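Q: My labmate handed me this sequence with no annotations at all. I'd like to see what the chain might look like in three dimensions before we decide whether it's worth expressing. Could you predict it?
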Amino acid sequence: MSSELTKTSEERMNKTIASLKENFAGIRTGRAQSSLFDKVKVMAYGTPTALNQVANISVPEARLIVIQPWDKALIGEIEKAIRSSELSLNPSNDGKLIRIAIPPLTGERRKELVKQAKAAAEQGKVAIRNIRRDGNDELKKLLKDGKITEDEESKDSAELQKLTDSYIDRVQKIVDEKEIEITEV
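A: Here is what I predict for the chain of 185 residues:
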């Protein structure tokens, strides 16, 4: 395949995988993880700032997260940001630290999260297929312009399909791992 086209398609597919993994990091499992707060923004000194840039986030126990702000004046803002996030967590603060107990997930909530993960994975698969379509369109254009032969177009198209299949498999593996993580008690 035209190596430039392969490289471009593969880079785009890698970005899709990275985006999916980032999306999955925000899906809460029954276990405490500091990555839950990757998307939480705190109003620090008039600017929305990532929580991990204004506080230390630690996981001392399987179901407990401790957040220690570097500036104690931000503790109220951090607590407010966590409460208003989509995480449905209830932080408690003692003036120095914020403690968040991670409640166990109900069976119904686990099913919802698995459904959410599968929907995100399906979006990833669609994005990868769209990248394949773009690559095939580019190949057809090169063929029409006489820059490649029909044999080269056919060979490159098959190679692009193999690349697509391998990335679809990676997406499936990632979602299967996330489903196990969500459903394990």
